[in-house]
Amino acid sequence: MKHDIVSGLASVRERIARACERVGRDLSSVQLIAVSKGHPEDAIRAAHAAGLRVFGENYAQELARKASALGDLEDIRWRFIGHLQRNKIKLIEGARATVDTVDSIRLAEAISSRASARKTDVELLLQVNVGGEAQKSGCSMEEVPALVEAVRHLPNVTLRGLMTVAPHFDEPSDTRPIFAALRELAREQGLPELSMGMTHDLEPAVEEGATMVRIGTAIFGPRPSAPV
Ligand SMILES: *Cc1c(COP(=O)(O)O)cnc(C)c1O
């Protein structure tokens, strides 16, 4: 059965609205990023037709291919949310994507130097492994202040905020301390954007101050297992 993007999107918007209501937040303070990894281009076209404009992708090659195939959608914007190897930076330049997963000064320097050469500016978020899980990327909480300081001195990149992928808890509200810790860290560092919350833990993320939520499954349905 074909997943219905329009109703998936409506239910996500409803979930965001209710979470905002519970904590007295303005709906416009939460940006919805549609995570389209693993889904074909026509799913992205359908989501765009339903009103979505910002899409998150995890793999450099896949982003490059999709951005080029969807080049006719002039107002589409891309955020790179996967682990980025320095030798893959060039692949995502055509998409003019932000990089939301910077976790080392070497990666930030490489993005900065290519951006300088191309006379462009790249928006960055730092990925923080708040839960300290061995299998997840991201710098530690302790590394953030020094990394923020270093990235702020680099040309042609603008550091906008912090991002995290929280550990999985069966009870989503158990994630709240993780999100609260990221919010406090961003506040201390004077960073306005907080990218946190996925299909499973959207509510606690919004309640704890997310300015961007990254939602895949609840919009597009389960990801096809074969590469598209
Ligand atoms: C896949 C992915 C998402 C979306 O996850 P869903 O559970 O499908 O909403 C969000 N953020 C990152 C970093 C991802 O890799």
Layout: helices, strands, pairs:
Blueprint: H1 5-23, E1 31-35, H2 41-49, E2 54-57, H3 60-69, E3 77-80, E4 98-102, H4 105-117, E5 122-127, H5 144-152, E6 157-163, H6 176-188, E7 193-195, H7 202-207, E8 212-215, H8 217-220
Parallel strand pairs: 1-2, 1-8, 2-3, 3-4, 4-5, 5-6, 6-7
The structure holds pyridoxal-5'-phosphate.
Pyridoxal-5'-phosphate binds next to strand 8 and helix 8.
Keywords:
single chain, about 230 residues, alpha/beta, TIM Barrel, 8-stranded parallel sheet, binds pyridoxal-5'-phosphate
Structural account:
By secondary structure, this protein is an alpha/beta fold. The chain has one domain (about 5-220): TIM Barrel, CATH 3.20.20. Helices cover about 35% and strands about 15% of the residues. It has helices at about 5-25, 40-50, 60-70, 105-115, 145-150, 175-190, 200-205, 215-220, and strands at about 30-35, 55, 75-80, 100, 120-125, 155-165, 195, 210-215. An 8-stranded parallel beta sheet has the order 7-6-5-4-3-2-1-8. α5 links the parallel β5 (about 120-125) and β6 (about 155-165). The longest helix is centred in the first third of the chain and has 19 residues, at about 5-25. It is globular, with a radius of gyration of 17 Å. About 40% of the residues are buried. The model has no long low-confidence stretch (mean pLDDT about 95). The structure holds pyridoxal-5'-phosphate. Pyridoxal-5'-phosphate binds near residues 35 and 216.
Short description:
It is built from eight helices and eight strands. By secondary structure, the protein is an alpha/beta fold. The site of pyridoxal-5'-phosphate (PLP) has 13 residues, from strand 8 and helix 8.
